[in-house]
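Chain X:
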Amino acid sequence: MQIALPGRRDPAPIAGQRRRVGRDVGDEHVRKVLDLTIRLAEVMLSSGSGTADVIATAEDVAQAYRLSDCVVDVFATTAIVSALPTADSPPVTIVRAVHVRTTDYTRLADLDLLVQRITSGGVTVDEAHDAMDELTERPHIYPRWVATVGWAGFALGIAMLLGGTWLTCVLAALTSMVIDQAGRLLNRIGTPFFFQHVTGAAIATLVAVAAYYVAGLNPTALVATGIVMLLSGLTFVGAMQDAVTGNMLTAVARLGEALFLTSGIVVGIVAGLQVATLAGISIELHVDATESFVIPNQPLTIGIAVFGAGLAGACLTVASYAPWRSVVIAGIAAASAEWLLIGLGTAGLGQTVATGTAAVAVGFVATLISIRRQAPALITATAAIMPMLPGLAVFRAVYYLAVDGSYNDGLAQMLSATAVALALGSGVVLGEFIGSPLRYRAGRLGDFFRIEGPPGLRRAVGRVVRLQPADPAQSSDGRRPFSVALEPAQDRAPDPDEDAGTT
């Protein structure tokens, strides 16, 4: 049969194969490299990076230090790195849990530069550990009041985007500052995130009720702004990336956490509305129950909405301690995404389809920006999609369920909010998948965007390019304590004459 059926055959699967290799490095070097990789993985996980990104980046760093048999895995909030046993050495495994999430995009950008230095060669493990010490022990780049002002600007932009009046915008900014300070206080005393979301939603609702009672303001924009602010900390993009790249358990855990914290927002809104009811304040919303997508149709309102989205995206990066050079790019990306969303909505597309399409464009553009600037794509993508979060639909759903008693309308709004959130996360991942070939090989188009340089934090969406030492002889020299340069492995093109059995 083998003679009668010539041709190239697929290789055997790697499952069950012996993957032990003789280590040309000492056990102390192995432990240092594993400790470095798991510290790197912890910073990436705490910043909301996807599981596949963490694994690919950690494996790159391990390979740069000639540890080619390193195994990296992530489960929910636990990172595991291990060096396989060999005939001469026992296995070495390190486990670390990520309990605290602190979004600091400057730290993430500095980590990207460190990984670029390591994968370009010439950095010892001790030097890398010293750089990690400086990176992780350094306080945030901005004072706390700057981050609070950033949240105020974010809320101001969202209120403008939702069509609020000038008084609504001012109240939204002040309310966001109160929510931020309350969250910091609760976090300082160890309050679980669920109750922090309950408190934040209740504050936004009570302020909206007071504004409705005193000044007759529509509470929708105020509460929706607070909801978007609270939803901005949820990692929808990372969860969808985990699901698409096959890390289902971690994806389910992240989506479950997002759903649980969103339920905390719902509880806070219901508590605020119940307080209004006990105080004798009856709120009436004159909106269409089937409407979940408000599209501005006048040049002035469109301009205000686009400017508000850009302001929200830029201020979110400030609140997340991003470098100043990323603020302008994030603002332009958010404004462009909102402009595209309005255009698609005007063309007759529904909210879910329009939002998903805009998210695809965001993911693609974020990939191009990260390739050109050699910076993490997570910063641009997160800032651009945040103004499109379904805060309006969440508030309407809670109002119909808890106040109006219209369960069908409330369920429809809640399903719409869920669909929009999933469309945002999956759309960004799809956009990155479309743009991923430009990172290494895509002809003249890829050469136009790509800047030659060592790989930094990997975006493991699409085909993950396998890296190899640029100098195999240097890689095999275990006496050198320095990292070796990595480059994309050159896949050998199939030879048609070889398949035909000719020379």
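Chain Y:
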Amino acid sequence: MTQDHPTGSGTATEAPWRPARTVAVVLAGGTGSRVGLGIPKQLVKIAGKPIIEHTVAVFEAAPEIDDILVLMAPGYVDDARRILDAAGFRKVRRVVAGGDTRSDTTRLALDLIGPDDCNVLFHDAVRPLVSGRIVRECVNALWTYAAVDVAIPSADTIVEVDDDDCITGIPVRSRLRRGQTPQAFRSPTIRQAYRLAADDPHFAATDDCGVVLRYLPDVPIKVIDGADENIKVTHPVDVHLVDKLFQLAAARVPRLVDEARYTEELTGRTMVVFGGSYGIGHELTELARRHGAQVFPVSRSTTGTHVERDADVRAALTAAYEATGRIDHVVVTAGILEKGALAEMDEATIDRLLQVNFVGPVTVARYALPYLQQTKGQLLLYTSSSYTRGRARYALYSATKAALVNLTQALADEWAEFGVRVNCVNPERTATPMRTRAFGAEPEHTLLAAETVARASLDVLLSDLTGQVIDVRRSGGQAVPATADEPVLPTQPGPDRAGLPATN
């Protein structure tokens, strides 16, 4: 259990708090009736995975969390258990049916945890965008406070109304917060609150901090900052909003600790790079080779390989397989950028854009699957910031890049049963020959180096990520992959900046 110990006093109890462990309780008891999809909302797939899997993954990755309990809607426990078992989560200890009410489920969770003094975090399963930062701050706050809530300021004015829907009051907005989860407690505190609640015939509660506030009014409840992205999937529109947030969010890129680890991981592996003659594809080829991988770069200019042609793609994959007996990674950096208004483009240009930028990756994916299935490998595609909104004079380029994001997430879902991962890298404007041809010379300090994007790509290929869009961007003057705990939305440059990364 990794925690930061604050200095100073202000503890809610006199005795030093020494928890034996920290337990995350994922509350998945809802039936999803308001979503209207016929299954509990926590089982609905977003960004290629069930919501509950996304949520549990956050606590699995948090070093502050030791154990995870999942309280599932009755009748769906086996479904949840299959999902979480398949994901390989090591911290999940129990998946059991929840109670009839939220408070019943909390009591059940406390019974399962046992009598030890520990930290307990209760989190809604249908808040899949909770961040590692929020989890960490909740746990750290428990060194000082016995109860912790998560909330964000209200952007709207709140009004109180009577039975006739007439305003009776308007609270001062600066003192109002919108509650989220997790809610975190020292286990003796939440147990005592529920013991007192059990003696109240009028007890009713929808959240656990409310129970502490009512029955232990002398216990301070610390509020830490939540996040706008940490929304709860409740209504049908929420499914679409969260799906879009996942699509826009920058995944965390796992970085290996040293160069020797790259060699250890890559030695003996085979990589095929479509579009490997220059730019990002070339840099990735050279980098992987230096660390022991057998890399087969192909392109129109060097090997006469057209990604949109079935025969060319099959030939490239067959040659690599016959030479090494395996294919672990297939990368598609091939792409073209043609500027101009759609109405002014001739049919040949339109066809070329669509064929190379979209049909090509689809063709590679189709023929790569049997090879990647053997090695439990990964397909890596490339998009651009223009996938989030189409831009004038780049209509087809933007459209094909958006299509690749959807293709990534769909294939990650389809191929999960085969153990094949699919991801998509989204670099900022990158110094490549293709970009230079399209935009001319640009100040070097404003562009990512192709080698930087290649390094981030290699990290993705060696990770367990799947179905993710990984941003690679400049930060503080240095080009780095986005690695913040909070989801980071891609920058939306203006039309004059174009914001288009260059693949090959």
